[in-house]
Amino acid sequence: MTTRVLIADDQALIRTGLRGIIESAPDLEVVGEATTGREAVELARTERADVVLMDIRMPEVAGLEATRLITADDDLAGVRVLVLTTFELDEYVLHALRAGASGFLGKGATPAELVDAIRTVANGDALLSAKATQALIARFLTGGGPDPAAGTSALDVLTDREREVLALVAVGLSNEDIAARLYLSPLTVKTHVNRAMTKLGVRDRAQLVVIAYQTGLVRPGDAA
Prior knowledge:
- The protein has about 220 residues and is α/β, with parallel strands linked by helices.
- The chain has 2 domains: about 140 residues, Response regulator (Rossmann fold), CATH 3.40.50; about 70 residues, Winged helix-like DNA-binding domain superfamily/Winged helix DNA-binding domain (Arc Repressor Mutant, subunit A).
- The protein contains 10 helices and 6 strands; from the N terminus they run E-H-E-H-E-H-E-H-E-H-E-H-H-H-H-H.
- It has a 6-stranded parallel sheet, with helices on both faces.
- Helix 4 links the parallel strand 4 and strand 5.
- The chain is globular and about 50 Å long.
């Protein structure tokens, strides 16, 4: 099955490079290129992309707002947004996740990492790079900490095991890492993650990280 990808970046050279990398993979296809955030939203609707590669700094409509518009549109429920930017270590990380992005990858990623990231997001498994996870924690350390209104009571719908898995997701562990830590199979971990997403009403793993910090389940400085 071919994954349809929309590239949203205002720099022609970057779009050309991304297209070359993406189309070198037999299971990926570029279905459009957007030069503004507004165009990205429009093309997401008309081209029915599976994944949108979204630059944060876009003209007309910023990348984060374009991301929010795409993920809030019920008609685009199956579209995933992978934020690709040079600003991996600043406050944009948290804002991108809150806007509904399913993944966050720095432009310093290798071609193989980019292709893998697109596949990961397309399969419904959100991707948050290690650097992005660190940046998210740093954001909370500088004043964007737990929301008292969110409270741990918001997690009452989860089982003890689901909370345990959620905490490990939030500190940046992969399903394989969590499986090894808890002596479970990766498939069992994925099931717990999916159940937590369903119960908490979130799209994917990336939003689970936000909830874990907002509720105080995980706090800055917690080790993996």
